[in-house]
TrEMBL record:
Keywords: Cytoplasm, Endonuclease, Hydrolase, Magnesium, Metal-binding, Nuclease. It comes from the Bacteria. Its EC number is 3.1.26.4. SUPFAM superfamilies: Ribonuclease H-like. Monomer. It comes from Isoptericola sediminis. One of its GO terms (cellular component) is cytoplasm. This is Ribonuclease H. Residues 1-13 have a biased composition (Polar residues). PANTHER family: RIBONUCLEASE H1. Endonuclease that specifically degrades the RNA of RNA-DNA hybrids. Residues 32-49 have a biased composition (Low complexity). Mg(2+) 1 binds at residues 64, 102, 124. The keyword Endoplasmic reticulum does not apply.
Length: 199
């Protein structure tokens, strides 16, 4: 899959500080450097508690899927933000389902990260949330079969998502779709751009 990619900055502090992609793991701003230095300085001081500083970048992601007809032409979209950095992705398929597009959005968003990250992932799909929070462990134990001994639908994407999630610390957040959440609204627009890209 070759998703379309838009990469822009949220805020540009100066002409010399333009950034167009998410940071690589381990590359931290001055605040992170100060925190690390403070932790190191306090390491040998009796009675001082040192809080470890994570080397993983913090990323917020919003994803969404769309389908014109179900099955039908579908699209997916993802918004990624880390500090001042922002990345938008979208793509589409001519014959798919809404659930597949919801899953694809999350998979492609995680694949866009440059290394292990601390991720807060906002989705409006109960299918994705229930799958990751309640169902997937049982599916894996059962050899990717449901409790009724039937093959798991969209197993290819669930396996891909499971592999991507294993690379990161992912915190799942459900948001109600079309309820004014700016990140979700943007992901929805990108998903519809994905539909338009394959019409």
């Amino acid at each position: 899959m070759n998703p379309n990619l838009i990469s822009v900055t949220l805020d540009t502090p100066s002409d010399n500080e333009r950034a167009h992609s998410l940071p690589r793991p381990g590359r931290r701003g001055s605040k992170g450097a100060r925190s690390s230095a403070s932790a190191a300085a306090g390491a040998g001081v009796p009675g001082r508690r040192v809080t470890p500083v994570s080397d993983k970048p913090t990323v917020e992601i919003w994803t969404d899927g769309a389908c014109k007809g179900n099955p039908g032409i579908g699209g997916w979209g993802a918004l990624l933000r880390s500090g001042e950095h922002r990345k938008e992705l979208f793509g589409g398929e001519k014959a798919t389902t809404n659930n597949r597009m919801e899953l694809t959005a999350v998979v492609e968003a995680l694949r866009a990260l440059k290394g292990p990250s601390d991720v807060t992932l906002h989705v409006d799909s109960q299918y994705v949330m229930n799958g990751m929070k309640s169902w997937i462990a049982g599916w894996k134990r059962n050899g990717w079969q449901t409790a009724a001994k039937k093959p798991v639908k969209n197993a290819d994407l669930w396996k891909a998502l499971d592999a991507e999630v294993a690379e990161h610390d992912v915190h799942w957040v459900w948001v109600k779709g079309h309820a004014g959440d700016p990140g979700n609204e943007r992901a929805d627009q990108l998903a519809n751009d994905g539909v338009d890209s394959v019409r």
